[in-house]
Protein backbone atom coordinates (compact mmCIF):
# COMPACT_ATOMS: atom_id res chain seq x y z
CA UNK A 1 0.00 0.00 0.00
CA UNK A 2 1.78 3.13 -1.20
CA UNK A 3 1.67 6.36 0.82
CA UNK A 4 -1.01 8.79 -0.26
CA UNK A 5 -0.41 12.44 -1.08
CA UNK A 6 2.23 14.16 0.99
CA UNK A 7 2.56 11.43 3.62
CA UNK A 8 5.87 9.65 4.21
CA UNK A 9 4.23 6.67 5.91
CA UNK A 10 0.92 4.91 6.10
CA UNK A 11 1.41 4.42 9.84
CA UNK A 12 3.75 5.89 12.43
CA UNK A 13 3.76 4.10 15.76
CA UNK A 14 4.93 6.07 18.79
CA UNK A 15 6.22 3.53 21.29
CA UNK A 16 8.13 0.28 20.79
CA UNK A 17 6.36 -1.89 23.33
CA UNK A 18 4.24 -4.98 22.80
CA UNK A 19 1.13 -3.26 21.42
CA UNK A 20 2.92 -0.87 19.12
CA UNK A 21 5.23 -3.52 17.70
CA UNK A 22 2.35 -5.95 17.12
CA UNK A 23 0.43 -3.30 15.19
CA UNK A 24 3.50 -2.25 13.19
CA UNK A 25 4.38 -5.80 12.12
CA UNK A 26 0.79 -6.65 11.23
CA UNK A 27 0.47 -3.43 9.20
CA UNK A 28 3.60 -4.20 7.16
CA UNK A 29 2.30 -7.73 6.55
CA UNK A 30 -0.71 -6.04 4.97
CA UNK A 31 1.42 -3.83 2.71
CA UNK A 32 1.63 -0.63 4.74
CA UNK A 33 4.75 1.51 5.05
CA UNK A 34 5.45 1.80 8.78
CA UNK A 35 7.87 3.50 11.15
CA UNK A 36 8.23 2.86 14.89
CA UNK A 37 9.61 5.48 17.26
CA UNK A 38 10.95 4.24 20.59
CA UNK A 39 12.97 6.00 23.26
CA UNK A 40 13.50 5.07 26.92
CA UNK A 41 14.02 7.94 29.32
CA UNK A 42 16.38 6.69 32.08
CA UNK A 43 14.97 6.28 35.58
CA UNK A 44 16.18 8.58 38.38
CA UNK A 45 18.64 5.79 39.23
CA UNK A 46 19.87 5.82 35.63
CA UNK A 47 18.34 2.52 34.49
CA UNK A 48 17.48 2.24 30.80
CA UNK A 49 16.84 -0.59 28.37
CA UNK A 50 16.40 -1.60 24.76
CA UNK A 51 13.57 -2.05 22.30
CA UNK A 52 10.54 -4.05 23.37
CA UNK A 53 8.73 -2.03 26.01
CA UNK A 54 7.88 -2.70 29.65
CA UNK A 55 6.89 -6.36 29.38
CA UNK A 56 10.15 -7.58 27.89
CA UNK A 57 12.53 -5.31 29.77
CA UNK A 58 11.12 -4.45 33.19
CA UNK A 59 7.81 -6.26 33.44
CA UNK A 60 6.28 -9.65 32.77
CA UNK A 61 9.38 -11.45 31.50
CA UNK A 62 11.97 -10.59 34.20
CA UNK A 63 9.22 -10.84 36.84
CA UNK A 64 8.29 -14.39 35.76
CA UNK A 65 11.96 -15.42 35.67
CA UNK A 66 12.57 -14.17 39.20
CA UNK A 67 9.32 -15.75 40.35
CA UNK A 68 10.58 -19.03 38.87
CA UNK A 69 13.89 -18.61 40.69
CA UNK A 70 12.02 -18.29 44.00
CA UNK A 71 9.85 -21.34 43.22
CA UNK A 72 12.98 -23.37 42.46
CA UNK A 73 14.40 -22.44 45.85
CA UNK A 74 11.23 -23.75 47.48
CA UNK A 75 11.37 -26.88 45.33
CA UNK A 76 14.91 -27.63 46.49
CA UNK A 77 13.66 -27.81 50.08
CA UNK A 78 10.65 -29.92 49.02
CA UNK A 79 12.99 -32.30 47.19
CA UNK A 80 14.43 -33.57 50.48
CA UNK A 81 11.04 -35.02 51.38
CA UNK A 82 10.97 -36.84 48.06
CA UNK A 83 14.28 -38.56 48.74
CA UNK A 84 16.72 -36.22 47.04
CA UNK A 85 19.95 -35.87 48.99
CA UNK A 86 20.22 -32.10 49.11
CA UNK A 87 22.79 -30.39 51.32
CA UNK A 88 21.83 -27.94 54.04
CA UNK A 89 24.06 -25.10 52.84
CA UNK A 90 21.82 -23.85 50.05
CA UNK A 91 22.50 -20.26 49.01
CA UNK A 92 21.44 -17.95 46.23
CA UNK A 93 23.38 -15.40 44.19
CA UNK A 94 21.46 -12.27 43.27
CA UNK A 95 24.23 -11.27 40.85
CA UNK A 96 24.06 -14.58 38.97
CA UNK A 97 20.26 -14.35 38.68
CA UNK A 98 20.35 -10.71 37.63
CA UNK A 99 22.99 -11.39 34.98
CA UNK A 100 21.05 -14.36 33.59
CA UNK A 101 17.81 -12.36 33.43
CA UNK A 102 19.50 -9.40 31.75
CA UNK A 103 21.26 -11.65 29.23
CA UNK A 104 17.89 -13.08 28.21
CA UNK A 105 16.35 -9.61 27.92
CA UNK A 106 19.19 -8.38 25.70
CA UNK A 107 18.74 -11.38 23.44
CA UNK A 108 15.05 -10.51 23.07
CA UNK A 109 15.97 -6.85 22.34
CA UNK A 110 18.23 -8.04 19.53
CA UNK A 111 15.68 -10.46 18.06
CA UNK A 112 13.07 -7.70 18.13
CA UNK A 113 15.29 -5.33 16.14
CA UNK A 114 16.14 -8.03 13.61
CA UNK A 115 12.46 -8.89 13.19
CA UNK A 116 11.56 -5.25 12.48
CA UNK A 117 14.34 -5.06 9.92
CA UNK A 118 13.22 -8.29 8.24
CA UNK A 119 9.63 -7.05 8.08
CA UNK A 120 10.85 -3.70 6.73
CA UNK A 121 9.49 -1.69 9.64
CA UNK A 122 11.67 1.39 10.05
CA UNK A 123 12.90 1.64 13.66
CA UNK A 124 13.81 5.11 14.91
CA UNK A 125 15.46 5.44 18.32
CA UNK A 126 13.90 8.77 19.19
CA UNK A 127 11.15 10.32 21.29
CA UNK A 128 8.18 11.23 19.13
CA UNK A 129 6.09 14.34 19.78
CA UNK A 130 3.29 15.79 17.71
CA UNK A 131 4.07 18.92 15.70
CA UNK A 132 0.61 18.94 14.15
CA UNK A 133 -2.17 16.43 13.55
CA UNK A 134 -0.30 14.72 10.69
CA UNK A 135 3.32 15.29 11.72
CA UNK A 136 5.51 13.84 14.43
CA UNK A 137 8.85 15.35 15.35
CA UNK A 138 11.79 13.42 16.76
CA UNK A 139 15.41 14.09 17.60
CA UNK A 140 17.90 11.30 16.99
CA UNK A 141 21.70 11.14 16.99
CA UNK A 142 21.51 12.20 13.36
CA UNK A 143 19.43 15.29 14.20
CA UNK A 144 15.80 16.37 13.86
CA UNK A 145 13.31 14.44 11.76
CA UNK A 146 9.72 15.18 10.80
CA UNK A 147 7.51 12.22 9.96
CA UNK A 148 4.20 12.70 8.14
CA UNK A 149 1.69 9.86 8.17
CA UNK A 150 -1.88 8.93 7.24
CA UNK A 151 -2.37 7.30 10.62
CA UNK A 152 -0.67 7.50 13.99
CA UNK A 153 -0.75 4.98 16.81
CA UNK A 154 0.00 6.11 20.37
CA UNK A 155 1.50 3.12 22.18
CA UNK A 156 3.88 4.70 24.69
CA UNK A 157 2.65 2.76 27.72
CA UNK A 158 3.42 4.00 31.20
CA UNK A 159 6.07 4.30 33.87
CA UNK A 160 5.91 3.87 37.67
CA UNK A 161 4.86 6.77 39.86
CA UNK A 162 6.80 8.12 42.82
CA UNK A 163 5.01 9.54 45.86
CA UNK A 164 5.43 13.22 46.59
CA UNK A 165 7.42 12.77 49.79
CA UNK A 166 10.96 13.82 50.76
CA UNK A 167 13.63 11.39 49.60
CA UNK A 168 11.41 9.21 47.42
CA UNK A 169 13.01 9.98 44.06
CA UNK A 170 16.52 10.35 45.48
CA UNK A 171 16.64 7.06 47.36
CA UNK A 172 13.79 4.88 46.13
CA UNK A 173 13.61 2.50 43.19
CA UNK A 174 10.73 1.04 41.18
CA UNK A 175 10.19 -2.12 39.16
CA UNK A 176 12.02 -0.27 36.37
CA UNK A 177 15.22 -0.68 38.42
CA UNK A 178 14.77 -3.88 40.41
CA UNK A 179 15.47 -6.49 37.74
CA UNK A 180 18.87 -4.99 36.87
CA UNK A 181 19.83 -3.85 40.38
CA UNK A 182 23.61 -4.18 40.69
CA UNK A 183 23.47 -5.23 44.34
CA UNK A 184 21.38 -7.66 46.36
CA UNK A 185 18.20 -5.88 47.53
CA UNK A 186 18.63 -6.91 51.17
CA UNK A 187 15.91 -5.86 53.59
CA UNK A 188 13.26 -4.28 51.37
CA UNK A 189 10.08 -2.31 51.93
CA UNK A 190 7.58 -2.33 49.07
CA UNK A 191 5.25 0.67 49.07
CA UNK A 192 2.02 -0.45 47.41
CA UNK A 193 0.03 -3.68 47.35
CA UNK A 194 -1.09 -3.97 43.75
CA UNK A 195 -0.02 -6.96 41.74
CA UNK A 196 3.45 -5.54 41.02
CA UNK A 197 4.12 -4.86 44.69
CA UNK A 198 2.91 -8.27 45.84
CA UNK A 199 4.76 -10.14 43.09
CA UNK A 200 8.04 -8.40 43.91
CA UNK A 201 7.61 -9.01 47.65
CA UNK A 202 6.84 -12.66 46.95
CA UNK A 203 9.94 -13.47 44.93
CA UNK A 204 12.21 -11.38 47.17
CA UNK A 205 11.19 -13.44 50.20
CA UNK A 206 11.51 -16.59 48.12
CA UNK A 207 15.09 -15.60 47.27
CA UNK A 208 15.89 -15.12 50.95
CA UNK A 209 15.44 -11.38 51.50
CA UNK A 210 13.31 -9.74 54.16
CA UNK A 211 10.32 -7.98 52.59
CA UNK A 212 7.67 -5.69 54.06
CA UNK A 213 4.64 -4.47 52.11
CA UNK A 214 2.99 -1.17 53.03
CA UNK A 215 -0.73 -1.15 52.15
CA UNK A 216 -2.50 2.20 51.95
CA UNK A 217 -6.04 0.82 51.58
CA UNK A 218 -6.71 -2.66 50.16
CA UNK A 219 -4.51 -5.27 48.47
CA UNK A 220 -4.96 -6.00 44.78
CA UNK A 221 -7.48 -3.24 44.15
CA UNK A 222 -9.79 -4.22 41.30
CA UNK A 223 -9.44 -7.94 41.99
CA UNK A 224 -11.85 -10.11 43.96
CA UNK A 225 -11.20 -9.05 47.54
CA UNK A 226 -11.78 -12.43 49.16
CA UNK A 227 -9.09 -13.88 46.90
CA UNK A 228 -6.82 -10.87 47.51
CA UNK A 229 -6.99 -11.34 51.26
CA UNK A 230 -6.24 -15.06 50.93
CA UNK A 231 -3.13 -14.13 48.95
CA UNK A 232 -2.04 -11.73 51.71
CA UNK A 233 -2.57 -14.43 54.36
CA UNK A 234 -0.53 -16.92 52.31
CA UNK A 235 2.27 -14.40 51.84
CA UNK A 236 2.32 -13.73 55.58
CA UNK A 237 2.76 -17.46 56.13
CA UNK A 238 5.68 -17.34 53.69
CA UNK A 239 7.34 -14.58 55.74
CA UNK A 240 6.23 -11.35 54.06
CA UNK A 241 5.37 -8.62 56.59
CA UNK A 242 2.43 -6.29 55.98
CA UNK A 243 1.83 -2.78 57.29
CA UNK A 244 -1.92 -2.22 56.97
CA UNK A 245 -3.51 1.20 56.33
CA UNK A 246 -0.13 2.89 56.26
CA UNK A 247 1.19 5.84 54.25
CA UNK A 248 4.88 6.73 53.80
CA UNK A 249 5.90 10.22 54.92
CA UNK A 250 9.61 10.47 54.20
CA UNK A 251 12.79 8.65 53.20
CA UNK A 252 16.14 9.58 54.69
CA UNK A 253 19.58 8.18 53.97
CA UNK A 254 21.56 7.49 57.15
CA UNK A 255 25.33 7.68 57.61
CA UNK A 256 25.33 3.88 57.73
CA UNK A 257 23.98 3.80 54.18
CA UNK A 258 20.66 2.42 55.37
CA UNK A 259 17.42 4.11 54.35
CA UNK A 260 15.12 5.28 57.11
CA UNK A 261 11.46 5.20 56.14
CA UNK A 262 8.89 7.05 58.24
CA UNK A 263 5.19 6.29 57.89
CA UNK A 264 1.87 6.82 59.64
CA UNK A 265 -1.06 4.45 60.15
CA UNK A 266 -4.78 5.24 60.02
CA UNK A 267 -4.67 6.41 63.65
CA UNK A 268 -2.00 8.94 62.60
CA UNK A 269 0.60 7.18 64.73
CA UNK A 270 4.11 7.61 63.36
CA UNK A 271 6.58 4.75 62.87
CA UNK A 272 9.98 4.30 61.26
CA UNK A 273 12.37 1.52 60.33
CA UNK A 274 15.61 1.06 58.41
CA UNK A 275 15.84 -0.75 55.08
CA UNK A 276 18.40 -1.52 52.39
CA UNK A 277 15.98 -0.95 49.52
CA UNK A 278 12.75 1.01 49.08
CA UNK A 279 10.62 -0.13 46.15
CA UNK A 280 7.72 2.07 45.09
CA UNK A 281 4.81 0.22 43.45
CA UNK A 282 2.02 2.76 43.85
CA UNK A 283 0.76 2.69 40.29
CA UNK A 284 1.82 3.87 36.87
CA UNK A 285 1.29 6.99 34.79
CA UNK A 286 0.63 6.99 31.06
CA UNK A 287 3.39 8.77 29.11
CA UNK A 288 1.06 11.04 27.16
CA UNK A 289 2.10 14.41 28.61
CA UNK A 290 5.39 14.12 26.70
CA UNK A 291 3.63 13.79 23.33
CA UNK A 292 2.20 17.32 22.87
CA UNK A 293 -1.23 15.83 22.26
CA UNK A 294 -2.83 19.29 22.37
CA UNK A 295 -0.95 20.17 19.20
CA UNK A 296 -2.63 17.26 17.42
CA UNK A 297 -6.02 17.97 19.01
CA UNK A 298 -6.14 14.67 20.89
CA UNK A 299 -8.19 14.84 24.07
CA UNK A 300 -7.34 12.93 27.22
CA UNK A 301 -9.79 11.54 29.76
CA UNK A 302 -10.66 12.92 33.17
CA UNK A 303 -7.44 11.63 34.71
CA UNK A 304 -5.53 14.01 32.42
CA UNK A 305 -3.33 11.23 31.05
CA UNK A 306 -5.20 8.51 29.22
CA UNK A 307 -6.88 8.51 25.83
CA UNK A 308 -10.63 7.83 26.01
CA UNK A 309 -10.83 6.00 22.69
CA UNK A 310 -13.65 4.10 21.01
CA UNK A 311 -12.30 0.99 19.30
CA UNK A 312 -8.82 2.45 19.86
CA UNK A 313 -9.75 5.59 17.87
CA UNK A 314 -9.22 8.93 19.59
CA UNK A 315 -11.33 12.02 18.99
CA UNK A 316 -8.99 12.76 16.06
CA UNK A 317 -10.11 10.16 13.50
CA UNK A 318 -6.65 9.21 12.15
CA UNK A 319 -4.94 9.00 15.57
CA UNK A 320 -5.33 5.77 17.54
CA UNK A 321 -4.06 4.34 20.82
CA UNK A 322 -3.48 0.89 22.27
CA UNK A 323 -2.18 -0.52 25.53
CA UNK A 324 -1.75 1.16 28.88
CA UNK A 325 -2.53 4.66 27.53
CA UNK A 326 -6.19 3.71 27.03
CA UNK A 327 -8.70 4.93 29.60
CA UNK A 328 -10.36 2.24 31.73
CA UNK A 329 -8.94 -0.67 29.75
CA UNK A 330 -6.90 -3.61 31.12
CA UNK A 331 -3.21 -2.76 31.44
CA UNK A 332 -1.97 -6.12 30.20
CA UNK A 333 0.54 -7.01 27.49
CA UNK A 334 -1.62 -9.57 25.62
CA UNK A 335 -4.46 -7.05 25.51
CA UNK A 336 -2.22 -4.46 23.83
CA UNK A 337 -0.87 -7.03 21.37
CA UNK A 338 -4.31 -8.31 20.36
CA UNK A 339 -5.76 -4.80 20.08
CA UNK A 340 -2.79 -3.65 17.99
CA UNK A 341 -3.11 -6.51 15.52
CA UNK A 342 -6.87 -6.09 15.16
CA UNK A 343 -6.45 -2.35 14.60
CA UNK A 344 -3.86 -2.91 11.86
CA UNK A 345 -6.22 -5.34 10.14
CA UNK A 346 -9.04 -2.80 10.25
CA UNK A 347 -6.84 0.00 8.89
CA UNK A 348 -5.07 -1.96 6.16
CA UNK A 349 -6.85 -5.30 5.72
CA UNK A 350 -10.55 -4.40 5.41
CA UNK A 351 -11.35 -6.17 8.69
CA UNK A 352 -14.30 -5.16 10.85
CA UNK A 353 -13.30 -7.11 13.97
CA UNK A 354 -12.92 -4.97 17.11
CA UNK A 355 -11.10 -5.76 20.33
CA UNK A 356 -13.21 -7.34 23.08
CA UNK A 357 -11.97 -6.06 26.44
CA UNK A 358 -14.36 -8.20 28.49
CA UNK A 359 -13.38 -11.43 30.23
CA UNK A 360 -9.63 -11.01 29.89
CA UNK A 361 -7.79 -13.58 32.00
CA UNK A 362 -4.84 -12.60 34.17
CA UNK A 363 -2.61 -14.03 36.88
CA UNK A 364 -0.85 -12.53 39.87
CA UNK A 365 2.48 -14.36 40.19
CA UNK A 366 2.69 -14.37 43.96
CA UNK A 367 4.35 -17.40 45.66
CA UNK A 368 1.00 -19.18 45.52
CA UNK A 369 -0.39 -17.79 42.28
CA UNK A 370 -3.82 -16.23 41.78
CA UNK A 371 -5.47 -16.58 38.38
CA UNK A 372 -8.78 -14.98 37.43
CA UNK A 373 -11.04 -14.46 34.47
CA UNK A 374 -14.36 -12.65 34.34
CA UNK A 375 -16.14 -10.86 37.16
CA UNK A 376 -15.19 -10.69 40.81
CA UNK A 377 -17.82 -11.74 43.32
CA UNK A 378 -18.33 -8.09 44.33
CA UNK A 379 -18.78 -6.88 40.75
CA UNK A 380 -21.16 -9.72 39.89
CA UNK A 381 -23.29 -8.99 42.97
CA UNK A 382 -23.34 -5.30 42.14
CA UNK A 383 -24.22 -5.85 38.48
CA UNK A 384 -26.79 -8.64 38.83
CA UNK A 385 -27.86 -8.49 42.49
CA UNK A 386 -26.73 -10.89 45.21
CA UNK A 387 -29.93 -12.96 44.97
CA UNK A 388 -29.31 -13.55 41.26
CA UNK A 389 -25.81 -14.99 41.47
CA UNK A 390 -24.52 -18.30 42.81
CA UNK A 391 -20.98 -18.69 44.13
CA UNK A 392 -19.49 -22.17 44.11
CA UNK A 393 -16.31 -22.63 46.11
CA UNK A 394 -13.89 -25.25 47.38
CA UNK A 395 -10.61 -25.78 49.14
CA UNK A 396 -8.42 -28.50 47.67
CA UNK A 397 -5.22 -30.46 48.30
CA UNK A 398 -2.57 -30.47 45.55
CA UNK A 399 -1.12 -33.97 45.38
CA UNK A 400 2.39 -32.51 45.18
CA UNK A 401 1.92 -30.88 48.60
CA UNK A 402 1.30 -34.13 50.50
CA UNK A 403 4.78 -35.58 50.95
CA UNK A 404 6.57 -32.33 51.90
CA UNK A 405 3.52 -31.49 54.06
CA UNK A 406 3.17 -28.03 52.55
CA UNK A 407 0.50 -25.66 53.78
CA UNK A 408 -2.75 -26.24 51.87
CA UNK A 409 -5.09 -23.96 53.78
CA UNK A 410 -4.96 -21.25 51.12
CA UNK A 411 -5.47 -23.51 48.09
CA UNK A 412 -8.90 -22.27 47.11
CA UNK A 413 -11.07 -21.66 44.08
CA UNK A 414 -14.50 -20.30 43.31
CA UNK A 415 -16.86 -19.91 40.41
CA UNK A 416 -19.28 -16.97 40.18
CA UNK A 417 -22.37 -17.78 38.10
CA UNK A 418 -25.91 -16.68 37.42
CA UNK A 419 -28.49 -18.66 39.44
CA UNK A 420 -31.00 -19.05 36.61
CA UNK A 421 -31.11 -21.69 33.88
CA UNK A 422 -27.86 -23.52 33.12
CA UNK A 423 -26.10 -20.97 35.31
CA UNK A 424 -23.85 -19.01 32.96
CA UNK A 425 -20.37 -18.61 34.48
CA UNK A 426 -19.48 -14.97 35.13
CA UNK A 427 -16.07 -15.42 36.73
CA UNK A 428 -13.52 -18.05 37.74
CA UNK A 429 -10.93 -17.51 40.48
CA UNK A 430 -8.14 -19.87 41.42
CA UNK A 431 -5.35 -19.73 44.00
CA UNK A 432 -2.69 -22.39 43.73
CA UNK A 433 0.34 -23.66 41.79
CA UNK A 434 0.42 -22.89 38.07
CA UNK A 435 -2.68 -20.70 38.35
CA UNK A 436 -1.92 -18.96 35.06
CA UNK A 437 -1.82 -22.25 33.16
CA UNK A 438 -5.07 -23.36 34.80
CA UNK A 439 -7.00 -20.16 34.11
CA UNK A 440 -5.76 -19.82 30.52
CA UNK A 441 -7.67 -22.92 29.47
CA UNK A 442 -10.86 -22.00 31.26
CA UNK A 443 -10.70 -18.48 29.78
CA UNK A 444 -11.56 -20.00 26.40
CA UNK A 445 -14.59 -21.61 28.02
CA UNK A 446 -15.75 -18.25 29.36
CA UNK A 447 -15.44 -16.81 25.83
CA UNK A 448 -17.73 -19.63 24.67
CA UNK A 449 -20.38 -18.83 27.31
CA UNK A 450 -19.41 -21.56 29.75
CA UNK A 451 -22.17 -22.71 32.11
CA UNK A 452 -22.04 -24.52 35.44
CA UNK A 453 -23.93 -27.34 33.78
CA UNK A 454 -21.15 -27.74 31.21
CA UNK A 455 -18.41 -27.33 33.82
CA UNK A 456 -19.87 -30.01 36.09
CA UNK A 457 -20.33 -32.31 33.08
CA UNK A 458 -16.63 -32.08 32.20
CA UNK A 459 -14.46 -35.01 33.29
CA UNK A 460 -11.29 -33.82 34.97
CA UNK A 461 -7.74 -35.05 34.47
CA UNK A 462 -6.67 -36.81 37.67
CA UNK A 463 -4.66 -35.96 39.66
CA UNK A 464 -4.32 -32.34 38.55
CA UNK A 465 -5.21 -29.11 40.27
CA UNK A 466 -7.14 -27.82 37.25
CA UNK A 467 -9.64 -30.67 37.67
CA UNK A 468 -10.86 -29.00 40.87
CA UNK A 469 -13.01 -26.73 38.70
CA UNK A 470 -14.81 -29.82 37.35
CA UNK A 471 -15.38 -31.19 40.88
CA UNK A 472 -16.78 -28.00 42.37
CA UNK A 473 -20.36 -28.41 43.65
CA UNK A 474 -20.77 -26.59 46.98
CA UNK A 475 -22.29 -23.11 47.04
CA UNK A 476 -21.62 -20.43 49.60
CA UNK A 477 -25.39 -20.07 49.97
CA UNK A 478 -25.68 -23.70 51.18
CA UNK A 479 -23.38 -23.12 54.16
CA UNK A 480 -21.80 -26.55 53.63
CA UNK A 481 -18.12 -27.20 54.37
CA UNK A 482 -16.12 -26.55 51.17
CA UNK A 483 -13.15 -28.65 52.34
CA UNK A 484 -12.57 -31.88 50.39
CA UNK A 485 -13.27 -35.24 52.02
CA UNK A 486 -10.64 -37.12 49.98
CA UNK A 487 -8.63 -36.75 46.80
CA UNK A 488 -10.30 -39.48 44.75
CA UNK A 489 -14.02 -39.33 45.51
UniProtKB/TrEMBL annotation:
<keyword id="KW-0520">NAD</keyword>
<dbReference type="InterPro" id="IPR012999">
    <property type="entry name" value="Pyr_OxRdtase_I_AS"/>
</dbReference>
<feature type="domain" description="Pyridine nucleotide-disulphide oxidoreductase dimerisation">
    <location>
        <begin position="360"/>
        <end position="470"/>
    </location>
</feature>
<feature type="binding site">
    <location>
        <position position="64"/>
    </location>
    <ligand>
        <name>FAD</name>
    </ligand>
</feature>
<feature type="disulfide bond" description="Redox-active">
    <location>
        <begin position="55"/>
        <end position="60"/>
    </location>
</feature>
<dbReference type="GO" id="GO:0045454">
    <property type="term" value="P:cell redox homeostasis"/>
</dbReference>
<keyword id="KW-0274">FAD</keyword>
<feature type="domain" description="FAD/NAD(P)-binding">
    <location>
        <begin position="9"/>
        <end position="340"/>
    </location>
</feature>
<feature type="binding site">
    <location>
        <position position="128"/>
    </location>
    <ligand>
        <name>FAD</name>
    </ligand>
</feature>
<dbReference type="GO" id="GO:0050660">
    <property type="term" value="F:flavin adenine dinucleotide binding"/>
</dbReference>
<dbReference type="InterPro" id="IPR001100">
    <property type="entry name" value="Pyr_nuc-diS_OxRdtase"/>
</dbReference>
<feature type="binding site">
    <location>
        <begin position="192"/>
        <end position="199"/>
    </location>
    <ligand>
        <name>NAD(+)</name>
    </ligand>
</feature>
<dbReference type="GO" id="GO:0004791">
    <property type="term" value="F:thioredoxin-disulfide reductase (NADPH) activity"/>
</dbReference>
<feature type="active site" description="Proton acceptor">
    <location>
        <position position="462"/>
    </location>
</feature>
<dbReference type="GO" id="GO:0005829">
    <property type="term" value="C:cytosol"/>
</dbReference>
<dbReference type="GO" id="GO:0004362">
    <property type="term" value="F:glutathione-disulfide reductase (NADPH) activity"/>
</dbReference>
<dbReference type="InterPro" id="IPR016156">
    <property type="entry name" value="FAD/NAD-linked_Rdtase_dimer_sf"/>
</dbReference>
<dbReference type="Pfam" id="PF07992">
    <property type="entry name" value="Pyr_redox_2"/>
</dbReference>
<protein>
    <recommendedName>
        <fullName>thioredoxin-disulfide reductase (NADPH)</fullName>
        <ecNumber>1.8.1.9</ecNumber>
    </recommendedName>
</protein>
<dbReference type="InterPro" id="IPR036188">
    <property type="entry name" value="FAD/NAD-bd_sf"/>
</dbReference>
<dbReference type="InterPro" id="IPR046952">
    <property type="entry name" value="GSHR/TRXR-like"/>
</dbReference>
<keyword id="KW-1015">Disulfide bond</keyword>
<keyword id="KW-0560">Oxidoreductase</keyword>
<dbReference type="InterPro" id="IPR004099">
    <property type="entry name" value="Pyr_nucl-diS_OxRdtase_dimer"/>
</dbReference>
<dbReference type="InterPro" id="IPR006338">
    <property type="entry name" value="Thioredoxin/glutathione_Rdtase"/>
</dbReference>
<feature type="binding site">
    <location>
        <position position="324"/>
    </location>
    <ligand>
        <name>FAD</name>
    </ligand>
</feature>
<keyword id="KW-0285">Flavoprotein</keyword>
<keyword id="KW-0676">Redox-active center</keyword>
<feature type="binding site">
    <location>
        <position position="283"/>
    </location>
    <ligand>
        <name>NAD(+)</name>
    </ligand>
</feature>
<keyword id="KW-0521">NADP</keyword>
<dbReference type="GO" id="GO:0006749">
    <property type="term" value="P:glutathione metabolic process"/>
</dbReference>
<keyword id="KW-0809">Transit peptide</keyword>
<dbReference type="GO" id="GO:0005739">
    <property type="term" value="C:mitochondrion"/>
</dbReference>
<dbReference type="Pfam" id="PF02852">
    <property type="entry name" value="Pyr_redox_dim"/>
</dbReference>
<dbReference type="GO" id="GO:0034599">
    <property type="term" value="P:cellular response to oxidative stress"/>
</dbReference>
<dbReference type="InterPro" id="IPR023753">
    <property type="entry name" value="FAD/NAD-binding_dom"/>
</dbReference>
<comment type="function">
    <text>Thioredoxin system is a major player in glutathione metabolism, due to the demonstrated absence of a glutathione reductase. Functionally interacts with the Sod/Cat reactive oxidation species (ROS) defense system and thereby has a role in preadult development and life span. Lack of a glutathione reductase suggests antioxidant defense in Drosophila, and probably in related insects, differs fundamentally from that in other organisms.</text>
</comment>
<keyword id="KW-0547">Nucleotide-binding</keyword>
<comment type="similarity">
    <text>Belongs to the class-I pyridine nucleotide-disulfide oxidoreductase family.</text>
</comment>
Amino acid sequence: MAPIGDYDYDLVVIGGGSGGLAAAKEATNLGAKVAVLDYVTPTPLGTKWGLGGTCVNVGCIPKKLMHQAALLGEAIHDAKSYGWQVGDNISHSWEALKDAVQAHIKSVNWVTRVELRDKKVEYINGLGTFKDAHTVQTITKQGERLLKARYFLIAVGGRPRYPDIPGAVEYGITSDDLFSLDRAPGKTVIIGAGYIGLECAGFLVGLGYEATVMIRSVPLRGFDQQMANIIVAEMEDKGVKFLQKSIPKSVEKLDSGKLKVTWTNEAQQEFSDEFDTILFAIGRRALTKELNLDTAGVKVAGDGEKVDAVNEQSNVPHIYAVGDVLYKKPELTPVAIHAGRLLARRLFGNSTVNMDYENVATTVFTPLEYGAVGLSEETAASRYGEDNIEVYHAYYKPTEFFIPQKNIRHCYLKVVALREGDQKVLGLHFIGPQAGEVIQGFAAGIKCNLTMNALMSTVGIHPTIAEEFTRINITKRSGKDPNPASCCS
